[in-house]
Amino acid sequence: MTSESNSQSPVRQMRLIVEANDYDAAVAFFRDALGLPEQAAFEGEGDARVAILEAGRATLEISNPAQVRMIDHVEADGQPSAKIRIAFEVDDSAAITKDLTNAGATLIAEPRETPWKSLNSRLEAPAGLQVTLFQELETIDQRSSKPGFKRP
User: Fold this and answer.
1) What is the pTM (predicted TM-score) of this model?
2) Contact 41, 50 (CB under 8 A)
């Protein structure tokens, strides 16, 4: 599907639902420290609570095991990633990595430049989530001219 046909997709939003044992810590981390705006929040019986945080444009990245091993090697010195990992594109991955470690995340890997020209770091965040922060160092048009890159 090309970007021109995306407006015809039957999918309007991708929402990742995460169960957090320490709800307040998870909300403080993702909403307050990372800065994801709160779209809505609801409370129900029995202390049921949910916060829906906006995270910009959503994509679904599907990787085969060889790609995951390569990413783990490049991004985290070979430390295996979780089966599901969340990646956030940010403007300054070094600064945001520091902010999030100060807010309680555990640093897995310092920011480093990848072969695909992004500056990536990896963190263990609240709710048992592994997070990659990435800062694009080239545009998609610049990267699309390189070997191994395919664009529909």
Assistant:
1) 0.85
2) yes
Q: Where are the alpha helices (DSSP H) in 1-81?
A: 23-27, 65-76
Q: What is d(CA 13, CA 24) in angstroms, rounded to the nearest whole number?
A: 25
47 domain residue, yes or no: yes
The answer to whether residue 150 sits within a structural domain is no
pLDDT per residue, tens digit, the chain (152 aa), is: 444 445 688 988 899 999 999 999 999 999 999 999 999 999 999 999 999 999 999 999 999 999 999 999 999 999 999 989 999 999 999 999 999 999 999 999 999 999 889 999 999 999 999 999 999 999 888 887 777 777 66
Q: What is the phi/psi pair of residue 39, to 5°? A: -80, -40
Residue 9 lies in a domain: yes
Total structural domains within the chain: 1
E strand or H helix at 120, and its extent? strand 118-125
Q: Is residue 152 part of a domain?
A: no
- Chain CA centroid to CA 120, Å: 10
